TrEMBL record:
Xref: InterPro entries: EmrE
TM segment ranges: 38-56, 68-89, 95-116, 128-148, 154-173, 194-218, 224-245, 257-280, 286-304
Source domain of life: Bacteria
Keywords for this protein: Membrane, Transmembrane, Transmembrane helix
Pfam families: EmrE (PF13536)
Name of this protein: Multidrug resistance efflux transporter family protein
Keyword Disulfide bond: no
């Protein structure tokens, strides 16, 4: 239950991404700068956190042991996650991007067969948790209901350039996160892992920044400031909270799916944020029904996770006959 609350809190800070990315695009900022600046701003904050926790030597050691692993899965988990999201913001409205991003709930569940779990002396391929998948699909129905009132505004290019990149991101983010957890096996804490992945993804952000400088020029002061807010809120606070929650349940696919499903609450925070900051009117009735379905799905996830935890505790404490 604590991990789910951490996931919901992370979603609150993640919501800033969708609101400000769209704001930057509407004001003429390039997605190249929106994506790269976020990770540039993350490095100093994470560096000082890890430094004062005396975690730098261990993190550097891990980076040196398997640099290629760090480069590959950081590129997947951070690069193929955030670059497509900011790119999509240039072609689709905020409600579409934040709504489609919730497909990560289902994506995360479907990734289970890509991972192995050690049982005794054997490595067994994990199975898709069917109950978690079913509950995630219920949440997905709610997300679809939220999008229905605005579907008539979509066109072919918006679907291709605004939806496809987000779908790629929904698989890349949980895949990169889980692969790094699998590789590290708990040897680094959350702050060390996020800093290590941020550093390992730097080649991509430097390339994008250089390309942006030569093609669209330097970013405006407004885009720099908004990217700074996104970097701190979403990049440092939200990512750390979310990774902390997933770290705690990394060996249980059902609980991991429940934590990843908390990202569905992002769209609720996005709608509230846009109403407050951008003066967007209250969503139509069907969209509000969708919000209710999402909340219902989250309650089901919490209930199922609690029941599973109770069963595990009972079986572990039951005296031998």
């Amino acid at each position: 239950m604590r991990e789910i609350l951490l996931g919901i809190l992370a979603s609150l800070f993640f919501a800033v991404t969708f609101i400000l990315n769209r704001s930057m695009e509407v004001s003429g900022g390039s997605w190249l700068w929106s994506s790269s600046l976020r990770y540039f701003f993350m490095v100093p904050f994470l560096f000082f956190i890890v430094f004062f926790r005396n975690g730098l030597p261990t993190m550097v050691k891990e980076l040196k042991i398997a640099p290629l692993t760090w480069l590959i899965w950081s590129f997947v988990g951070f690069g193929l996650f955030y670059a497509p999201l900011t790119f999509a913001a240039a072609y689709g409205p905020g409600w579409l991007i934040s709504g489609m991003w919730q497909f990560t709930i289902v994506s995360g569940v479907l990734l289970a067969p890509f991972f192995l779990v050690k049982v005794g002396d054997r490595l067994i391929r994990q199975r898709i948790p069917r109950v978690s998948l079913l509950i995630s699909l219920i949440i997905l129905v709610g997300i679809v209901l939220i999008q229905v009132p605005d579907v008539q505004n979509l066109n072919g290019s918006m679907l291709l350039l605004g939806v496809l990149p987000v779908l790629i991101a929904t698989f890349a983010y949980p895949l990169g996160n889980r692969k790094m957890m699998e590789h590290l096996e708990g040897r680094l804490d959350t702050f060390q892992r996020v800093l290590g992945m941020t550093i390992a993804s730097m080649p991509l952000w430097i390339i994008l920044a250089l390309y942006a400088a030569f093609t669209v020029g330097l970013p405006s002061s407004s885009q720099v400031f908004q990217s700074f807010i996104v970097g701190v809120s979403s990049g440092v606070i939200a990512t750390t909270l979310f990774f902390m929650a997933t770290d705690r349940v990394r060996n249980n696919q059902g609980k991991l799916a429940a934590v990843e499903a908390t990202q569905s609450t992002e769209i609720i925070f996005v709608i509230i944020g846009e109403m407050i900051l951008l003066s967007i009117p209250l969503p139509p009735a069907l969209a509000l029904v969708g919000l209710g379905v999402i909340i219902f799905g989250m309650v089901l996830h919490c209930y199922y996770t609690t029941v599973q935890s109770t069963k595990l505790i009972t079986s572990n404490t039951r005296p031998d006959n």
